[in-house]
Amino acid sequence: MQVEAENDKEMEMETETETETEMESEMNSLSTSTSTLVAEVHLNQNTDTNSNSNVATQIEVTEPKQQQQQQQQPQQTVCLTVAEKLRRFCYIGTFDVPIFAASTLDLTVENHFPILLELCAQISQRELVECLGSVLGAGNAEQLPRRDEALLVLAVFLSTCRDDKERTAARGHFPLLVTSGKDLLLFVKFVKRVQSLMKRKTPFSRTIRKAVIDWYKLQPLERLLELWSLSDCEYCTHRDLLFHCHYTSEKFDMDILAALRLIFTPPKEVILWPDHLHPLNDFKELILGIAQVRLAQKPEEALPIVQQLHLGYQHVPRILLTDPQLLNILLPKMTYDQLLETWQKFLNVFKVHRNDQRSYTELFFEESRLRDANVEPIRLLIQESRVIKRNRVVTRGVVPAVQSTFMNNLYKRSFGLNKANGLRLHITINLEKCYMAKYLNGRWRSVKYLDAVLAFAFGYYKSESQVNVQIWYDKSGKLKPLPWTPIMTVDEAKACCERQQVVKIKQTLTDVIDNALNDASITYDAFLVLVPCATRGNPNNNSDELFRRLNEYRQTRNPNAKFIIISLRENHGSMAYSKERKENILELCGISEQMPRLINAFVNGKFV
Questions:
Q1: Which long-range contacts link 551-555 to residues 24+ away (Cβ below 8 Å)?
Q2: Does the pTM exceed 0.70?
């Protein structure tokens, strides 16, 4: 009997080792497939002096010999860690190079999964939660362009982490990182793609199921009811998600379970008030009112309910927003972002009613609302370009003047009403005559190059107190001040740029830092360079020389200085950047509404 028992134990040990080897082979197959995509070895986060010295010597091999002695000391601390690469991905969507190219496409999981799989295997749960907490936190909402990349990192870690303790600890922070219903559905979408890439049969792992159930359990009742009340709530998606997570076998509080079943209940059944909704009797009037609004076929049917219950824009179905009387009730409660999202549709609704249209447009020009919303000029310029179609046919004769539109007037009014960040900026602009009348490339081809320059440069000039604006003026590469004044309007600033008559320049980015080094009167926090394309003036088409000059400025003047390039007429990077060291350089390609947020986040050290 003892021999048989020992044999049984040996068989169990063999089966366990076989299963472990199978899992290792599966993960190894994925990692080997990613080795072709990721050729460089990521650095560990050890603080050992020997490892740091080895890394420094590896970096110094690629640099000129005459620069080794100058950069030997600072390069020991410029290596990117795994957490810094993930944080950079959360902001600009890239891991190795500091380049942001504006895009309107959804995040493609297949393109980033191999590198994310490797990075998530090298980071601990504590470091990951700390990284994602700083990115997805409520205090960082004004600096994060979008939440997609951070939620993808969380989805990959929870789906691929092999350490039970690490995975369980990260799952405990899930309700704090995923803060809304939209975040939850977006996270689940990424998880399904990751499961498919891992060639797993189920759409969710056990860890994901537990995390989703815990998220619903920990939500306050008022938040679940608010989630149901939104007109853009995806009820079927929430229903399918809970069924896939086997929520019927879980124990919920009676009111929470009633709120979840409310999400699944069609409006026709909600009006009948079935038994499973009795725990929500305290909110019965509001729930019945919203259900009746959703069943309304005409705006006139929903109008008295909206007035009685004081419902907002987010509670009314979009199909009913065609009546001026209903819109007049909703407009005072709408946020400035909601006004900007709906201005084209609402202007068409008020087209016949001129008095209502005038009062509607006056809401945008209220200085207090515009200042509180902190809307950047570049965002309003993009809004204006959405309704402009550039004519490619050139006609002869007198070209009639284009009438100023409502959004164009709002764009001009917004300068100087943004919140100051307290930055000391050095702005350099390329004002060559050959680019002044040209348009941008890519999506916003109806925006002129000079208008984009003014939206960024003059916007910062009017909002910040210490801004020095310079331009290249000849082939020597030297800079001279642009004669702007604080009392100028944007039209006067544009005319000032056109009067410079710059014919040909030598666009060298290092001259920008040399100009700042020679100016001892002020120390700058960031350098902002606005050019059509940053490929001109870069030795060997890489960032080595620019990094060396910036590093010199950081050592002697400001250790936190940053260098930002905006290539307005490009859709890709203009030079080769280092993939391992922190160069404190960021290149933005094209224009985007998120760029002011990225600039503020980069200057404030949110990512490298």
A1: 551/71, 551/74, 552/70, 552/513, 552/517, 553/513, 553/516, 553/517, 554/74, 554/584, 555/74
A2: yes
